């Protein structure tokens, strides 16, 4: 078994595509519009299934925002340099909500950014060869 994708409901599909592709360096992999059922899907990621898990962005026609509740925590993305990744996110107009630095009680360097719908994305520093993202 393996994780294929994670789905997030978004209030503005293009704004979310722009965040994940331009700010976090993912690729738009495919879209699927379903007017009969009033939704559009966009899949983004650093690679496609089956080699990589994807992020499914779901836009339901006419819904501009969602309450996230208390169950969802965050997505996590590996980056080679969390400090540089934060600077890059800011340069693209993204929102860094926790600057890069060691995790409390440990030495792993992490940061948090927030997407346009308020979802948190953790940036976890992993040096080359340890699963770091090549895009950030």
Give an overview in words:
With 136 residues, the chain is of the alpha/beta class. Helices cover 15% and strands 38% of the residues. The chain is built from two helices and eight strands. The longest helix has 11 residues. It is globular and about 50 Å long. The protein starts with a strand and ends in an 11-residue tail after the last strand.
Give the SSE layout.
Elements: E1 5-9, H1 13-23, E2 27-34, E3 39-45, E4 54-60, E5 75-79, H2 82-91, E6 95-102, E7 109-114, E8 120-125
Parallel strand pairs: 1-4, 5-8
Antiparallel strand pairs: 2-3, 3-4, 6-7, 7-8
Class of secondary structure makeup: alpha/beta
Cα radius of gyration in angstroms? 15 Å
Strand order of the largest sheet: 1-4-3-2
Q: What is the ordering of alpha helices and beta strands?
A: EHEEEEHEEE
Mean pLDDT: 93
Taking the alpha carbons of the first and last residues, their distance comes to: 28 Å
List its salient traits.
136 residues; alpha/beta; four-stranded mixed sheet; 8 strands
């Amino acid at each position: 078994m393996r994780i294929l994708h994670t789905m997030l409901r978004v209030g503005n599909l293009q704004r979310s595509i722009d965040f994940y592709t331009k700010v976090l360096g993912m690729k738009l992999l495919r879209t699927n519009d379903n007017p009969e059922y009033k939704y559009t899907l966009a899949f983004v990621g650093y690679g496609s299934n089956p080699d990589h898990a994807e992020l499914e962005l779901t836009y339901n026609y006419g819904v501009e925002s969602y309450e996230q509740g208390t169950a969802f925590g965050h997505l996590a993305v590996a980056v080679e340099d969390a400090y540089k990744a934060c600077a890059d996110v800011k340069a693209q107009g993204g929102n860094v909500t926790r600057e890069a630095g060691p995790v409390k009680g440990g030495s792993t360097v992490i940061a948090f950014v927030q997407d346009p719908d308020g979802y948190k994305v953790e940036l976890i520093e992993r040096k080359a060869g340890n699963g770091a993202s090549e895009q950030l």
